[in-house]
Specification:
7-stranded parallel sheet, alpha/beta, Rossmann fold
Length: 295
Amino acid sequence: MKITVTGSLGNISKRLTEQLVKKGHDVTVISHNADKAAAIEGLGATPAIGSVEDEAFLKEAFTGADAVYVMIPPNAQAENLKETMKDLSDKYAKAIEATGVKYVANLSGIGAQSPEGNGPSSAFYFSEGRLNQLEGVNVLHLRPGMFYTNHHGSVGMIQRMGFMGNNFSADTIIMMSHPYDIADAAAEAFDTLSFNGKQVQYVISDEFTGGELAATLGEAFGKPELPWVVMTDDQLKQGIMQGGFSAHMAENFAEMGRAIGDGAIWEPYLADKANNFGSRKFAPFAKELAAIYNR
């Protein structure tokens, strides 16, 4: 089967490409960076160099594909995340319509059930909605939780400040996902064509409270008493902006924290936990993360 993968050689897309090539599929990988072409070829895939913002390029890259994996590239400096999501999702949908692609795996988020209140995850409500308008196209929305790899951004807090935290309490449950589980869910779906119509697949690898998360990372980093600190929204936003995010994105993450705190963001998943694909536990990842930074 011919499959086009967006996301270049990111944490999900590289693994997905490797798995699909191993299964014998003909894979094209979209990257905006021409320097990635050789690495893509090294995986046994064909590079398509261009921007997903370019609708004409998307149509060219999707032409001849039986299936596509689509994702919205992260943008720390976004000033209107929902409009950005709407615009790119529309371009994806038009390219899919124009080229006759029949199977789509869409990287969404666990809070996509609501257009408001779930921070960045609410923006996926609009990408799912636009792809659901496609007639005669089978779409699988992959809804992961918080990415394990986001904790690369927690290392400075752990090492320099000696705590972890967010704007919710230590006993709050957090649903988390390993990027490889997301990639493997997409690879299996494409290989078996096990989805039809418009479907949702949750990809939750592990569940931790904030306190358990701090304890696990603390142990891995040699700080077994690492505390979980509850921040105010303003403190959280200031920290996020110091990390290079726009004020708009910082407010979105504060909103997500509030949704995690009251549990609203998880409700559809908790009602449908049997519909989950995920197995990689967080503790081994924490040790891998610490090994990178403790060299």
